[in-house]
Amino acid sequence: MPVRTLDDLDVDGAALGVRVDINSPVDADGGLTDDARIRAHRETIAELAERGGRVALLAHQGRPGGDDFARLEAHAERLDELLDAPVSYCDGTFSADARDAVGALDPGEIVVLENTRFYSEEYMEFEPARAAETFLVSRLAPALDAYVSDAFAAAHRSQPSLVGFPERLPAYAGRILERELDVLGSVEDTPEPRVYVVGGAKVPDSIDVAEHALENGLADTVLTTGVVGNVFLLAAGVDIGTASEEFVRDRGYWDEIGRAADLLGRYPDRIDLPVDVAVERDGERVVLSKTDLPPRDGESAMDIGPATVAAYTDYFDAAGTVVLNGPAGVFEHDLFGDGSRDLFTAVADSDAYSIVGGGDTAAAIRKFDVEGFDHVSTGGGAALTILTGGTLPAVDALRR
Ligand SMILES: Nc1ncnc2c1ncn2[C@@H]1O[C@H](COP(=O)(O)OP(=O)(O)OP(=O)(O)O)[C@@H](O)[C@H]1O
Ligand SMILES: O=C(O)[C@H](O)COP(=O)(O)O
């Protein structure tokens, strides 16, 4: 069943609970160090305000016990700067104060309610019917006329604020959610040949993506970079040195080498591996081609080199679509950003339709100011869930 969108919602004067994902990097004082997700939600929030909605934003920040578990006051201030409509902040989520704050909204006004995860039930996963019985949902829903789900990046969670409200209120997908589902949910309709680039450090997830894409004919070719590339090199019997091996072992990914070898055995002509890597030697970046391997003791493969970028660029130039997830190296480190910068630039500059996902991937794109992708997803885990053929509970909840 298709989800209803904002085109189906009678917004004017309605009190709207709008679940967004503005979970952002914050400093020790709760100040924002990146506002990309807040900016991304502007479109939905501005549209609802312009159409006369009374908008109550629901969102989480961090996880209980984590350094980034914080109030949403800074997020509200940032939204107020970014939007033409007035944005206030309420330090309750479903308390009488919060319900009063929603009731007091005039059409076109916005209030950011407090971090949903300040309430223990919100950090649990429930079936929708049970989620609708939680305090957050059962207390706040009566103050609302409708619910809008725009939190694509959290849609792989079945937490109350994501799946409970549609049991009690008419529910609609916001513009971000709508667009993400359109793009990521129809990869099979994009131009061929399709090239998937899997990098970064979440090796099991990336191998899941590669396996799903190869088995289901979604990808013609899978290119590997980052730690994922190192695991595939090990699977192919390439000696990338003890330090690289230790890194893979310490992360608990040693068994993934067997899975990578299995994929290489099944799809030998459809998976490609780095042909050079970069290590740190005497404080400098040193690129080692395959014939220079293994690196010296203590040197770990932290990035791909220019020959790999050149070889992969040939695939991009011939591709109809490129799907990319994960940085090509330790882009946070000055010595190891070149691979990600140059590879991402090659994708963005190619004529291929390009879809990019992942929190760190998006951070690398911003760091290197790479422009020209067709779709940069706001979601990490949620994007991976779709790319591995899984379903999103928060989206399923909208289909009832
Ligand atoms: N060769 C490498 N050695 C060690 N770490 C690496 C290497 N290549 C990439 N990384 C690290 O991988 C991390 C990003 O990987 P991750 O899989 O989390 O990316 P993402 O999918 O974009 O993000 P997320 O899944 O968090 O949304 C970065 O912190 C980067 O430093
Ligand atoms: O940053 C994310 O991936 C989303 O906001 C979901 O956060 P979570 O992984 O803490 O549920």
UniProtKB/TrEMBL annotation:
Residues the record lists as binding substrate: D21, I22, N23, R37, H60, Q61, G62, R63, R117, R157
Gene3D superfamilies assigned: Phosphoglycerate kinase, N-terminal domain
Catalytic class of the enzyme: transferase
Location of the protein in the cell: Cytoplasm
Keywords in alphabetical order: ATP-binding, Cytoplasm, Glycolysis, Kinase, Nucleotide-binding, Transferase
Signal peptide: none
Gene Ontology molecular function: ADP binding; ATP binding; phosphoglycerate kinase activity
A biological-process GO annotation: gluconeogenesis
Alphabetical list of InterPro entries matching this protein: Phosphoglycerate_kinase (IPR001576), Phosphoglycerate_kinase_N (IPR015824), Phosphoglycerate_kinase_sf (IPR036043)
EC number(s) from the headed UniProt entry: 2.7.2.3
Pathway(s) where this gene product acts: Carbohydrate degradation; glycolysis; pyruvate from D-glyceraldehyde 3-phosphate: step 2/5
Catalytic activity: (2R)-3-phosphoglycerate + ATP = (2R)-3-phospho-glyceroyl phosphate + ADP
Residues that, per the record, bind (2R)-3-phosphoglycerate: R37, R117, R157
Cellular component terms (Gene Ontology): cytosol
Residues binding ATP, per UniProt: E332, G358, G359, D360, T361
Similarity annotation: Belongs to the phosphoglycerate kinase family.
Subunit structure: Monomer.
Name the UniProt record assigns to this protein: Phosphoglycerate kinase
